[in-house]
Amino acid sequence: MRPSRGLIAMLAPVAALAISLPASASLILALDLPTLVTRADQISVVDVVSTKAAWNAEHDRIVTTIDVAVVDCWKGAAAPGSHVQIVQAGGTVGELTMRIDGMPHFAPGERALLFLRGTAERASVVGMAQGKRPVRRETGRWMVSAPDRGGADFVRTTPASGSIFTARPRPLEDLRSDVRALVGAGPPGGAR
Q1: Per the confidence metrics, is the pTM higher than 0.85?
Q2: pLDDT per residue as tens digits for the range 73-124
Q3: Which residues on neighbouring strands pair with residue 111, listed in sequence order?
Q4: Which of 33, 82, 127, 183 could be 131's S-S partner, Cβ–Cβ 3.0 to 4.6 Å?
Q5: Number of structural domains found in the chain
Q6: End-to-end CA distance of the chain, in Å?
Q7: Contact at 8 Å (CB) between 104 and 152?
């Protein structure tokens, strides 16, 4: 049975697009700031203390545990100086590396703003790489940069959601004010 000309005409543009686009292993919905705030149980500025990768119990995947110390908590009940353990897939054990496109990368000594879900003993980053924003001291002020894409492609869900990766660094205090206003407003629809 031969395919109809109509079917071929419909599939040709899709095939051409698939051939012309670079491949990426992860395609993730881009989240705007209100969505990140709503989905997060905790939003904190943290210092990365350590990272430790190990095999899971079944020895079929590598999992990394990241220990972070809270500097300032914008949502949630974490006290400054308290620790949070972030657990995520991927990492390096010996000579073997398991990488998940879209996962944030952590390095001891770095400071970041994190949007987290879960408990202090086992948290995860909301929205994968987009839930981690580098924080750096520039010209006497703490500045927040756009998140690293982590090797993934992000699909815009709202006009504002695509801008998080192209945004210029902004003062940490300005973003803090925006987040605190969103936390005070509660989730859309009035439910708290």
Answers
A1: no
A2: 999 999 999 999 999 999 999 999 999 998 999 999 999 999 999 999 999 9
A3: 47
A4: 127
A5: 1
A6: 58
A7: no
Domain that holds residue 140: 23-184
The pair phi, psi for residue 72, each rounded to 5°, is -150, 130
- Rounded Cα gap, residues 40 and 124, in angstroms: 10
Per the domain annotation, does 11 fall within a domain? no
Sign of dihedral through CA atoms 75, 176, 125, 34? Answer: positive
Q: What is the pLDDT, as a whole number, of residue 191? A: 41
What's the one-letter identity of residue 163? Answer: S
Q: Are 179 and 159 in contact (CB under 8 A)?
A: no
CA R_g for the chain: 20
CA distance 161 to 167: 11
Return the amino acid letter for 25.
A
pLDDT tens-place string over residues 45-66: 999 999 999 999 999 999 999 9
Spatial neighbors of 184 by CB under 8 A, at least 6 apart, are none
Check residues 109 and 186 and name the one with the higher pLDDT: 109
